[in-house]
């Protein structure tokens, strides 16, 4: 079984010892992703912006793997505050309108207090014609 690692160059990947995504056996497993703006290494205040940033980072990792958000089959959302969840719905609805993956929302603390959402996805690589 061939295995390929994808890195976004985030300093956290090397510091903690993980990959943004791992491709194995036709599957793409994307690590939990928060809403950092990696260009500026800042965390926006609004949960909707954090959600959009996390999805952009995930989409870039999927693209590098040869997949897209449309190939996502499973998604997990982790939020420390349930009151933030409804504000994410429009962003998520647009991102996953076609894939409509199986989804779970979990309430849990995140690594830093400014983090309002973390998103983890699993995708299946599209069949090659």
Automatic annotation (TrEMBL):
<protein>
    <submittedName>
        <fullName>Enamine deaminase RidA (YjgF/YER057c/UK114 family)</fullName>
    </submittedName>
</protein>
<dbReference type="Pfam" id="PF01042">
    <property type="entry name" value="Ribonuc_L-PSP"/>
</dbReference>
<dbReference type="InterPro" id="IPR006175">
    <property type="entry name" value="YjgF/YER057c/UK114"/>
</dbReference>
<dbReference type="InterPro" id="IPR035959">
    <property type="entry name" value="RutC-like_sf"/>
</dbReference>
């Amino acid at each position: 079984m061939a295995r390929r690692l994808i890195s976004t160059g985030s300093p956290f990947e090397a510091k903690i010892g993980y990959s943004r995504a791992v491709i194995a056996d036709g599957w793409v497993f994307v690590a939990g992703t928060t809403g950092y703006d990696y260009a500026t290494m800042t965390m926006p205040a609004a949960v909707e912006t954090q959600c959009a940033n996390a999805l952009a980072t995930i989409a870039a990792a999927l693209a590098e793997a040869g997949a897209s958000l449309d190939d996502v089959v499973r998604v997990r959302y982790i939020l420390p505050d349930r009151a933030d969840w409804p504000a994410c719905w429009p962003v998520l609805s647009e991102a996953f309108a076609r894939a409509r993956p199986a989804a779970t929302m979990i309430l849990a603390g995140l690594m830093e207090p400014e983090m309002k959402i973390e998103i983890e996805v699993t995708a299946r690589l599209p069949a090659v014609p």
